[in-house]
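Fold this sequence, please.
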Amino acid sequence: MTKIADELSLSIRSITDYPKPGIIFRDITTLLGDARSFRRAVDELVQPYVGLKVDKIAGMEARGFILGGAVAHQLSAGFVPIRKKGKLPHETVRIAYSLEYGVDEMEIHMDAVKPGEKVILVDDLIATGGTAVGAVQLLRQIGADVVSACFVIDLPELGGRKKLEALGVEVRTLVEFEGH
């Protein structure tokens, strides 16, 4: 790991056997609660895109809202929430997606992105990739040019990164953890 990855990994709590036996849950609330680590993570997520024209940052409910909002602010971009089914008040587009532990649905406002706008997807963690792949499909459905997907944590053995790359999406992560 890099020095930055080492520093950030120390601020992430690992909880064994949650939400079920054999799983190690990577909890970023400890990173978010530490001002230095939170700032460092946001700075590292933003850094590759400084000076590039990015129209929108899309964040997935709920931790993606926190990180995505901060990244959008730093890049002077708009923020687009991708929410669980039934939470958005205007006309939406919806997609079903696979979770590590089941299936769910998420949606986005139909007018959240103008066709051709450059969008970066942001969330806390990439595991199996089901949620992120669904989010990319939703964004593309309304005309977004998804230029990248950024995550604080990558669990590489679960294959999510490869699924996004197979869709032609560049993936950037800050910390890798083995085991899930």
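The two ends are 18 Å apart (CA to CA). The chain has six helices and nine strands.
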